[in-house]
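Morning F.,

Quick status update on the modeling queue. The single chain you submitted on Monday has been processed. Sequence for confirmation:
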Amino acid sequence: MLILAVVELSGLVVPVEAKAALNLKAKSLKSYRERFAPPLSVRTSLAGLRREPGGLLDLPLFAVSRLPALAAEASTPPHPATPRTTEHAETKLR
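Structure tokens below.
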């Protein structure tokens, strides 16, 4: 059984593939990832938790309730470098 859905979590569009077995090979999610390059995509199954390169998250079926929190983490932008050193140096130059 395979279900592919696209959900919006924390402003992030996340493709989710649900599988009822341990076989993690399916063309649907792979095709979506190749076409749209989402920053996060999720494959739920009976397999364990695993992060793969490129933003693919293998999530055990029992942990699906954690999906909103995981999407929020993925959509949080990295902290920008603080320009305090530059601002402080400019103040001293004045």
